[in-house]
Amino acid sequence: MKIEGGDFSKLQSGMLVATFFSLWLAVYFGNAIEEVFGYILILSFGILHGANDIKLLQVTAASRSKPLTFVRILIYYVVFVLGVAALFYMIPAISLALFILFSAYHFGEQHWISKITSSSWLNFFFYTAYGLIVLLLLFTAHDEEVSSIVLSITGLWIPPFYYPMALGVTSIIYVAQYVLLFKQIKAKIILELFYLMVFFIIFNTASLLWAFTIFFIIWHAIPSLADQIQFLYGDISKSNFFRYIRSSAVYWGISVVALVLLFIFIEDTGAGFLPFLFSFLAAITFPHVLVINRLNAS
User: What pTM does this model have?
Assistant: First the structure.
């Protein structure tokens, strides 16, 4: 079944209010305050929305003729995360490129899955193109800083003028796919353009971390949490939200503690926390994307 709960239309008013409140914070507070808020939200809601993957896998595995045990699911999941971390260490440039593509697809899938009426192989490219547009809007707005982070992770410098070029090409591809899928799309094009305009304003007003946080938390993590609660417990309510928190608290705690300990361990590299944070998010994003994709296909 597709995850239909917590439909975007039910959340959009609150998301827009939260977005413009976050924009107000970006205008009236300095980068240091924004970074504090950004780290807090990413380490809480950001990691939390992917902390219940084991539970989600258990639910989907229960329908199999020979369901996997909790221990086997946990082992597979941990090995996958460690494998991704190892790839980032051995081939960082390729791993980072794959992370961006996976994230783009994931963001696009979350935004569009309930707005497209049919399944098609074109959906994959449509989701990815939409997510890339959002990410490239962010990269273009903070081109020098993004290139510095890429350099810290991969050792490669990307000239800043590549980002708007990539944005233009991706936009053309996205429009072409929108035309091909037009009859299957239930969304209003004016509203979708408005959202992209809001992202453009946010990205060009806030610091890189705060801009990413606004999109990642308000426009992705919170709707994803709502969808997962609907899938696991049948409806979205305060009590079910706390059930979700209790179910994922251990995994969330382990993730945060592991992040802090790993950073302390490698602090002498001098790369800074932000590149390390994105690398850590990448390691846990790959399996999360696959889990959510499996749910949407069920």
Answer: 0.87
Q: How many domains does the chain have?
A: 1
**Residue 188: predicted pLDDT:** 85
Count, residues in the chain: 298
Alpha-carbon span 73 to 61, nearest angstrom = 9
Low-confidence stretches of the chain (pLDDT beneath 50): 1-6
Distance CA 82, CA 29 (A): 38
Q: Which residue is listed with tokens 């590149």?
A: 275
Both structure tokens of 261: 């300990």
Name the residue among 47, 37, 3, 90 with its Cα closest to residue 213.
37
- CA–CA distance, 221 with 90 (Å, rounded to integer): 29
pLDDT score of 267 = 57
Tokens of 22: 């976050």
Question: Which position has the token pair 């350099």?
Answer: 151
Give the other-Cβ count within 10 Å of 9's Cβ. Answer: 11
Beta bridge partners of residue 185, listed in sequence order: 116
Q: What is the reported pLDDT for 2?
A: 46
What is the extent of the structural domain holding 12? 8-297
Asked whether residue 112 is assigned to any structural domain, the reply reads yes
Which pLDDT does position 32 carry in this prediction? 80
Look at residue 185 and give its three-state secondary structure: strand
Q: What are phi and psi of 185, to 5 degrees?
A: -90, 130
Decide if 1 is inside a domain: no
Q: Which residues pair with residue 116 across a beta bridge? A: 185
Domain annotation covers residue 3 = no
202 falls within a domain: yes
Please list the alpha-helical segments (H only) found in the chain.
8-28, 31-41, 47-48, 53-61, 70-90, 92-112, 121-141, 143-154, 162-180, 189-205, 208-213, 222-233, 238-266, 273-297
265's tokens: 């361990």
